Amino acid sequence: MKKSLGAKTLAFPTPAWIVGTYDREGKPNVMTIAWGGICCSKPPCVNISVRKERYSYDNIIEKKAFTINIPSEHYIKEADYFGIATGGKTDKFVDTGLTPVKSDLVDAPYIEEFPLILECKMIHKNEIGIHTQFIGEIVDVKADESVLGEEELPDINKVLPVFFAPVIRTYHGVGKSLGNAFSLGKEIRSLNKKP
C-alpha cells in the first residue's frame, strides 16, 4: 500500500545544473538550479525554471542567453555554493577560483573547469507560479576530451554529474548501469508478440 505524501516536488533525480549568465555590466554570474531538463529533440532544447527574485533572472531576460554547466562530483562544494550565494552581493567566480569563459555563440559565460557545457539561446518564457520557465535552444555542446567515450560522446562515468534529491535536500553521484536504453524492453515485446 502506498502512503500519500501530498503535493511536493518529489521527483528523482533532478539535475544539479549551474546556469551561467552575464549581468548588465558584463559581470559573469552562475547559479545552481534543480528545476530543469531536456524538453525537445528538434530543435534540441532545455528548460530551466528560475524565480524572479534571483539575480540570474534579469540576466536571462536581458541577454536572452544562458549556459548550462554540468559539474562533476569533484566540484560539489562549488555547485552548492552557487545556489546559496547571490551574484548581486559577491563574485562567485572570485570566491571559488573557477574560470569564466565567454561563449563565442551566445551572450553568456561558461565554467572552464566543468566537463560538460550547453550553450543556449532563450527562445521561450513561461510564467508558472513562483518560477519562470525559460526554454533555451542548445546551439552547441562542449565537452572536455577527457570525458569522451565511445563515438566521441560524453561518458557519464567520466563526467560524474551530480544529482539532487528535492525536499530531502541531498546530492548524489552516478550509480551502477542497469543496461542499454531501447534494448532492455525488447524481451518483453518479443514475449508479447501475437502470432
Tell me, briefly, the overall form.
globular
Number of helices: 5
Task: Name the helicity range.
Answer: 10-25%
CATH class: Mainly Beta
Q: What fraction strand?
A: 35-45%
Count of individual beta strands: 12
Order of helices and strands: EEEEEHEHHEEEEHEEH
Parts with pLDDT < 50 across at least 5 consecutive residues: none
Helix- and strand-based class?
Answer: alpha+beta
CATH topology grouping: Pnp Oxidase, Chain A
* Overall mean confidence score, pLDDT: 95
Number of domains: 1
CATH architecture: Roll
* Gap from first CA to last CA: 37 Å
Could you give a short account of the major beta sheet? Answer: 7 strands, antiparallel
- CATH-defined superfamily: Electron Transport, Fmn-binding Protein, Chain A
Strand order of the largest sheet: 3-2-6-9-10-5-4
Radius of gyration: 18 Å
Oligomer: single chain
Explain how this protein is built.
- With 195 residues, this protein is an alpha+beta fold.
- It has one domain (14-191): Electron Transport, Fmn-binding Protein, Chain A (Pnp Oxidase, Chain A).
- It has five helices and twelve strands.
- The strands form three sheets. The chain has a seven-stranded antiparallel beta sheet. A three-stranded antiparallel beta sheet has the order 1-11-12, with no helix packed on it.
- It is globular, with a radius of gyration of 18 Å.
- The mean pLDDT is 95.
